[in-house]
């Protein structure tokens, strides 16, 4: 992972908005912050108000897989998921949705189906890329104290049943995080129509009625191995 300092912004070709949903405490904010800042905090920092981050990723665009700089806009549910009342405007028009669960909490995995139907009901189009992300694998696989409640096979099977990409991640170690987001962006941009929309949508957050404060946009991440990692 190489930082791209300000003033050296790569020529950004596309902006891809990624909506991140799932049960409370599965690690949505932690994964988003890990990707955007490279950091992790054990202390629970409640997501209050809206939380948005921009990160620039180097994404190989099919079919040639030439790497292109893509601004990924991360939309983290601002705590509304505790009340299962995520604002419909949050979903509208999103080209990609990541549903997260905690591999150490079966109930969060069981809840994936209802998060999926909520997203589908509010997206307003049927061309979105969906990804399933099982987080906290550092706890799951810790030697001696493995707390895993959802196997990788079960995660993969659920993802396959719903036509979703799949990844396991750890916000704590960073494992899988950048690769997962690169793969989601690549899947969105594999589609020519989506590429057109994502080019036009550079400031597209406005179309949803929600304005995004421009925050961090400094990381320039090269995912080792590109998008072919476990999806
Ligand atoms: N060990 C470990 N803890 C995590 C991981 N991701 C999140 N956490 C912790 O889980 C708690 C909830 O995380 P948070 O990101 O607030 O979850 P959210 O409610 O889904 O946004 C926090 O205490 C985090 O530090 C992870 O990958 N590994
Ligand atoms: Mg949160």
- Which structural class should the secondary elements be placed in? alpha/beta
- Measure the end-to-end span: 20 Å
- Give the assembly state of these chains: single chain
Strand content: 15-25%
Largest sheet: 8 strands, mixed
If you had to describe this structure to a student in words, what would you say it looks like?
Keywords: GTP-binding, Nucleotide-binding. By secondary structure, this protein is of the alpha/beta class. It is built from 8 helices and 8 strands. Strands 1-8-3-4-2-5-6-7 form an 8-stranded mixed beta sheet, with helices on both faces. Strand 3 (51-61) and strand 4 (66-76) form a beta hairpin. The chain is globular and about 45 Å long. It starts with a strand and ends in a 10-residue tail after the last strand. The site of guanosine-5'-diphosphate has 18 residues, from helix 1 and helix 5.
Give the key terms.
8 helices; globular; binds magnesium ion; disordered N terminus; alpha/beta; binds guanosine-5'-diphosphate; 231 residues; disordered C terminus; single chain
């Amino acid at each position: 992972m190489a930082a791209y300092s300000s003033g050296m912004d790569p020529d950004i070709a596309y902006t891809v908005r990624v909506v991140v949903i799932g049960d409370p405490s599965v690690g949505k904010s932690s994964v988003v912050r890990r990707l955007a800042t490279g950091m992790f905090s054990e202390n629970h920092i409640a997501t209050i108000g809206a939380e948005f981050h921009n990160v620039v990723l180097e994404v190989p665009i099919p079919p040639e897989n030439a790497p292109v700089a893509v601004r990924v806009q991360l939309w983290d549910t601002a705590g509304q998921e505790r009340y299962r009342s995520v604002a419909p405007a949050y979903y509208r028009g999103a080209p990609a949705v990541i549903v997260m669960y905690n591999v150490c909490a079966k109930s969060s995995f069981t809840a994936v189906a209802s998060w999926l139907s909520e997203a589908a009901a509010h997206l307003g189009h049927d061309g979105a890329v969906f990804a399933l992300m099982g987080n906290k694998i550092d706890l799951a696989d810790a030697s001696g104290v493995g707390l895993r409640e959802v196997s990788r096979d079960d995660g993969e099977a659920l993802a396959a049943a719903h036509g979703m990409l799949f990844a396991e991640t750890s916000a704590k170690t960073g494992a899988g995080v950048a690769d997962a987001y690169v793969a989601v962006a690549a899947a969105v941009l594999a589609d020519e129509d989506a590429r057109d929309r994502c080019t036009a949508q550079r400031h597209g957050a406005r179309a949803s009625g929600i304005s995004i404060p421009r925050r961090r946009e400094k990381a320039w991440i090269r995912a080792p191995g590109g998008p072919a990692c476990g999806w």
